[in-house]
Write a structure and sequence with these properties.
heterotrimer, A alpha/beta, B mainly alpha, C mainly alpha, A: 4-stranded antiparallel beta sheet, B: MetI-like fold
Chain lengths: 261, 271, 296
């Protein structure tokens, strides 16, 4: 697998070596070697069943929570394997934020408590710090102006797009280094999608973002780099524009030109 | 925190262990061939048997089943095949409420309905009370096991021009029949263990049943009567009766599990 | 034809209500409100009042809930959350707890009288008395067959109900809620405490009410161990009575229309209590699991 030339000297934020994952005796991922660059948006694309969601769920050790799940290989965050036996998965998940396909705010908590949920989890009690974190995260998620007067309302009382931005704010509040997004806009309307895409391009200044998407246009709008997966294998990885305009692999070309879903 | 959870699990299981162990240990001395063929002893005079209870229980549970099964299966069919109707919703809800009702109240109802007019405790009254208690379980399990039969099966049958009622009786029920059997067994298990309603409907008799409209004994009543009296031999008879009852329940429950194992009807085996 | 069976069930419940009301009419007319507020049950003076039994029912049920709900919930959490990795153990345990539900209450009663009550009298109650011996709570001579033991037996009996319903409730909590909590860096227990349980709270409350309904309606197990005393109990260690045990115990002593009617009125009170509790519980549980019927 050739590395895009723009990344040749750069220390990857995340690097997987021979990452395999599956359920029971079926492998969904078949040995992925991928280097994710820091402070960029990397899109993971491919047809249904190619393993892109499983890949991303391995990066924050969420995959192993499913009964029967198996993982092999290494995933290095800043050079250290998160699957090392001495590593606590809880600590890993604190450094990595995740936004899910369908917005999942905690319905029994207010907007405010949803945002600071990660902080209160870690024992933060200082009201001033929590207030500050809430405002900053909500601003960072482009949601502050819309909810600042109703922070006590239930997290579930917002529209779909607002809920998703709330979930992004919730992820931001714990100040992660990496943010994983699993098709974050697939349940949203075009206006909400546009807002979130704009948000993503702003966020990469401070975070490394990995976004799973099946929407080619979305990838070309927001992603700096794109990885193309097919049937559990990494087929091609390059800067987004060259990958789309001049794919090196035939499979990539067929996917991009719509020869299969 | 995990410790607390594990502790609660332990606390939940301990009584079960002790109850079973005590029933076996205390009841075993009374068990003999005679225990199943003789009537109870006088105070302080050996262990005798519980023939009166066994025959009485068989009679009343049997009659109760005969009453409850057609009604329960019928209602269950209605709930499953006509789920959209208002009656279905109301009746199903009522059914669930009835399932959890204090059985003594059901006994009082049957007392007013059957015992008072006939001026006697009777096996019939007992059977009616047991039938009312079994009814909700049978209706519910029937409904659940029929609902699992795929819609496509019904549609295939109707597409062949088979009328709806025949579709239900031939196709749907025969596919769901192990579930139905499960429900009936569970109902029988529940009815066999009931005591309170029988106290106010069937009364007690120290001999095997003498007539449908006479007082009739039952195994649970023996446990109640003989367990609270205080004579040591009577207490052992009560434990022995308890052992027989528990063994019967176990057999019933295992049969249910067997039915469920054979075809997954998706129903949990519990009473 | 099958519709008739369905109608029959509704008719049954309505018939129950009608029959109980008409049977207790004499008693209602005679005693009015004092039936539930007075404390004298005496056939000699033709007075039948059930306040002590009401107190007994509520007290024993309260104890049952206090002891039984945490245990039942703990088992449910174990079976639905933690046991995700320990499959075989979980199914075996689940079956074991369900077996608890299959034991007829008369056997719990027998065991309670002969094994539990002496144990309570000799070990548990003296300890409770020395630690919490406030008058009204654990005062009086421990005799074993009292309100407290009745509460304990009821607790044991409602554990399977609470655990089974709670388990369904917990399983109905969407996985995405758990995952959201995990991804913020929560431990297994924190996920349960902060994401699963809050989401499930109304359902769990419903399970508790169902357990209450079962405790209120229980007769045989209680009558063996409660001491069957129709006077107002002055502490948890006093013998007492519940509405259900009152009916069973006084049943042989009713020879005139008034006493018979009074007994039926006790049944009516139970009927109303059970109805309210059951409907409340069903509404709560239904809201969470979103099905039109639910198992118990």
């Amino acid at each position: 697998m050739s590395i895009p030339t723009s990344l040749s000297g750069v220390q990857p934020k995340f690097e997987t070596k021979g990452l395999k994952a599956g359920f029971g005796s079926t492998w969904v991922l078949n040995g992925i070697d991928l280097k994710i660059p820091p402070n960029r948006v990397t899109a993971v694309m491919g047809p249904s069943g190619c393993g892109k969601t499983t890949f991303v769920r391995c990066l924050n050790r969420l995959h192993e929570l499913t009964p029967g799940a198996v993982v092999e290989g290494e995933a290095l965050l800043d050079g250290e394997d998160i699957y090392d036996r001495r590593v606590d998965p809880v600590a890993v998940r604190r450094r990595i934020g995740m936004v899910f396909q369908k917005p999942n705010p905690f319905p029994t908590m207010s907007i405010y408590h949803n945002v600071v949920a990660g902080l209160t989890l870690n024992g933060e009690r200082d009201k001033k710090k929590l207030d500050l974190a809430a405002e900053n995260s909500l601003r960072g998620a482009y949601l502050w102006d819309e909810v600042k007067d109703k922070l006590r309302d239930s997290g579930a009382s917002l529209s779909g797009g607002q809920q998703q931005r709330l979930c992004i704010a919730r992820a931001l509040a714990v100040e992660p280094e990496v943010i994983l997004m699993d098709e974050p806009c697939s349940a949203l309307d075009p206006t909400a999608t546009a807002k979130i895409e704009e948000l993503i391009t702003q966020l990469k200044r401070d975070y490394t973002i990995i976004i799973v998407t099946h929407n080619l246009q979305q990838a070309s709008r927001v992603a700096d780099y794109t990885a193309f997966f097919y049937l559990g294998k990494l087929i091609e990885f390059d800067e987004t524009a060259p990958l789309f305009e001049n794919p090196k692999e035939e499979l990539t070309e067929r996917y991009i030109t719509g020869k299969f879903g | 925190m995990k410790a607390l959870i594990l502790l609660s699990v332990a606390i939940a299981v301990i009584p079960l262990f002790f109850v079973t162990a005590d029933v076996v240990v205390e009841g075993l001395p009374a068990i003999s061939w005679a225990f199943f063929t003789k009537n109870p002893p006088s105070p302080l005079a050996g262990y005798g048997g519980i023939l009166n209870g066994i025959e009485g229980s068989l009679l009343m549970v049997g009659m109760g089943t005969l009453i409850a099964v057609p009604l329960g299966v019928g209602a269950g069919i209605y709930f499953s095949e006509w789920p959209e109707s208002r009656l279905s919703f109301l009746s199903s809800f009522t059914n669930d409420v009835l399932a959890e009702f204090p059985t003594i109240v059901i006994g009082l109802f049957v007392y007013a309905l059957v015992v008072a007019p006939t001026r006697t405790f009777s096996a019939v009254a007992g059977a009616v009370a047991l039938a009312i208690i079994m009814l909700p379980i049978i209706a519910r399990t029937t409904e659940e096991s029929l609902k699992i039969v795929p819609v496509t099966l019904r549609e295939a049958s109707m597409a062949l021009g088979i009328p709806r009622w025949k579709t239900i009786f031939r196709v749907v029920i025969s596919t769901g029949k192990s579930g139905l059997a499960t429900g009936i067994l569970l109902g029988i298990a529940r009815a066999t263990g009931e005591t309170a309603p029988l106290i106010v409907t069937a009364g007690y008799l120290n001999f095997p049943p003498t007539g449908l409209f006479q007082q009739t004994g039952s195994v649970p009543y023996i446990i109640y009567n003989f367990g609270t009296a205080g004579y040591p031999n009577w207490t052992t008879v009560a434990w022995g009766a308890a052992l027989v009852l528990v063994a019967f329940m176990l057999i019933l429950n295992l049969s249910v599990k067997f039915f469920i194992g054979r075809r997954s009807t998706g129903i949990r085996a519990e009473i | 034809m099958v519709g008739a069976a369905a109608i029959g069930i509704v008719a049954l419940l309505i018939g129950l209500g009608i029959e109980l009301t008409s049977g207790s009419w004499l008693s209602i007319r005679t005693f009015g409100l004092s039936f539930v507020t007075g404390s004298t049950w005496n056939s000699v003076i033709d007075t039948y009042e059930v306040f002590p039994a009401l107190v007994g029912t509520l007290t024993a049920s309260a104890i049952a809930l206090l002891l039984g709900v945490p245990v039942g919930l703990g088992v449910a959490i174990f079976l639905s959350e933690r046991a995700r990795g320990i499959r075989a153990g979980a199914t075996a345990l689940g079956s074991l707890v369900e077996l608890l539900a299959a034991v007829p209450s008369v056997i719990y009663g027998l065991w309670g009288l002969i094994v539990l009550a002496p144990f309570m009298r000799d070990y548990i109650e003296p300890t409770l008395k020395s630690v919490l011996g406030i008058p009204g709570l654990f005062s009086g001579t421990p005799i074993g067959t009292d309100l407290f033991t009745a509460g304990v037996i009821l607790a044991i009996m409602i554990i399977p109900t609470i655990s089974a319903v709670s388990r369904d409730i917990l399983n109905a909590v969407p996985n995405s809620q758990r995952e959201a909590m995990y991804s913020l860096g929560a431990t297994d227990w924190e996920v349960v405490r902060k994401a699963v349980l809050p989401y499930a709270r109304s359902g769990i409350f419903g399970a508790t009410i169902l357990g209450l309904g079962r405790a209120v309606g229980e007769t045989m197990a209680v009558t063996f161990v409660i001491g069957n005393n129709i006077n107002l109990p002055h502490s948890l260690l006093s013998p007492g009575a519940t509405l259900t045990t009152l009916i069973v115990n006084q049943f042989g002593n009713t020879f005139d229309p008034l006493s018979e009617s009074a007994l039926v009125e006790v049944g009516l009170v139970l009927f109303l209590l059970a109805l309210v509790i059951n409907i409340l519980a069903r509404l709560l549980v239904w809201r969470m699991t979103r099905s039109t019927r639910f198992r118990v």
